[in-house]
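Handoff note, outgoing to incoming analyst
You'll be picking up this chain. Sequence as last confirmed:
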Amino acid sequence: MGGIAFMVEDKMCVGVVKDNLMARIDPEIYEQSLQNPGCREMDFTGRPMKGFVFVEPKATDMDDDLTYWIGLALEYNPKTKSSKTRK
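Most recent structure output, in case you need it:
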């Protein structure tokens, strides 16, 4: 991935890739979230992953903004499935 990821209940929740926050959010609010300033599709694999977004530093520089994005990720986390462990 080229960054650092924070796991909650054995599931990727948020992370940092270069200077961007990566957040795993509910796919049902994905399109709406992309309308927020500084938010864009997470596309480091070459194609967007629905439910994962990058948030630019300017959109997380205030505590309330960072809390908002982390809150969305933590809210969605219980609904996600754990990643399969590779052998």
